[in-house]
Known about the structure:
By secondary structure, the protein is mostly beta strands. Helices cover 14% and strands 48% of the residues.
Amino acid sequence: MTQTPFFRIRSTRLAPVLLAAAAWLAPAAAFAQIAIGDPWVRATVPQQQASGAFMKLTASKPARLVEARSPVAGVVEIHEMRMEGDVMRMRAVPGIDLPAGKPVELRPGGYHVMLMALKQTLTAGETVPITLVFEGEDRRRETVEIKAPVRALTTGSAAPMDKH
Ligand SMILES: [Cu+2]
């Protein structure tokens, strides 16, 4: 009996550390109801004002990505890029709907988290902290912190990320 409290205290103290380590080591880790797969941020060149963050979101229950924040950017918006006629246009959207069990991809040429008013150059190999806010059908909000590696764009859409 005397050892029980000791172990309780130990496990309470360890739990947050282990959770943080798991989030860091597993890019595709599931956070509660939302799985965030393969997050990345496009590298920038000096003086570039904007970039995009991309990932695959899979919600176990219907949810919506409603907000994003990052310490590297003065302004962060959720954007959609799509063809209107033969012109590729980007616009801010209030959120991205995540149907239950259906992966929604944020990728160059489609939905993305727009990082604007960048405070630093984003160099390949670094990681960028991003806070994502999800809202469930019950309107309850859940905040998830991720660390997205910075990658140089080598494939996919060549649409400029700096022109809005
Ligand atoms: Cu954009």
